[in-house]
Amino acid sequence: MNFESTRRRLTEKQADTVDRLTRAAVEVLREEGFAGLTVRSVAGIAGVAPATAYTYFSSKEHLVAEVFWRRLAGSPQPADDGLDRTGRVVAVLRHIALLVADEPELAGAVTNALLGRDPDVEHLRARIGLEIRDRLATALGEGHDPDVLEALELLYAGGLVRAGMGYGSYAQFADRLETSAELILE
To answer: Do 150 and 168 have their domain in common?
Structure first.
């Protein structure tokens, strides 16, 4: 999948550079955590000049938000497998919650990044929010109650913040999302 940059359209060569930078960011996060991540260190691992990296990413928060956006956008909608509405919604929430669950440093970095005020992060946060909203709306089905959709969005966002603050693992967060979603959808 060729992702469009949040800052400009990319040629094939530029898209390759951005791919290398996002993969390198995950490597640095695994080794150094969010505090040790810099655009400069990521550029070094990706084999590009720091100035080149900054043409694509305005900050480390922007870079991490892009990593999450790519994971989300590149992941398929969970199969419905004949599930009822609650089952479909739970599958969507669990899928999104577990996108970074196996990588605690990345998961914490995503929470930090998405809470930032960088305009490029704000743009990505909006794209991520719309993608999650679309997936939840599809799971709820036609004619769903907009207030229920908003409650589910708030549930996900609040859970993400709690997990990012260390009040449990992302796997536990996925379990709590399931229980809470079932309560909302009763």
So the answer is: yes
Torsion from C-alpha of 112, 116, 121, 123, nearest 10 degrees: 130
Tens digits of pLDDT across the chain (186 residues): 445 555 557 788 988 999 999 999 999 999 999 999 999 999 999 999 999 999 999 999 999 999 999 999 999 988 878 899 999 999 999 999 888 888 888 988 998 899 888 888 998 999 999 999 999 999 999 999 999 999 999 999 888 888 878 888 778 888 899 999 999 998
Domain count for the chain, please give it.
2
Q: Are residues 103 and 37 in the same domain?
A: no
- Domain residues for 21? 3-57
Rounded to 5 degrees, what are φ and ψ at 139?
A: -65, -35
* DSSP percent split of the chain into helix, strand, coil, nearest 5: 75, 0, 25
CATH of the domain at 75: 1.10.357.10
Separation of alpha carbons 48 and 56, rounded Å: 12
Q: How far is CA 101 from CA 56, 93, 119, 155, 175, in A?
A: 26, 13, 26, 17, 12
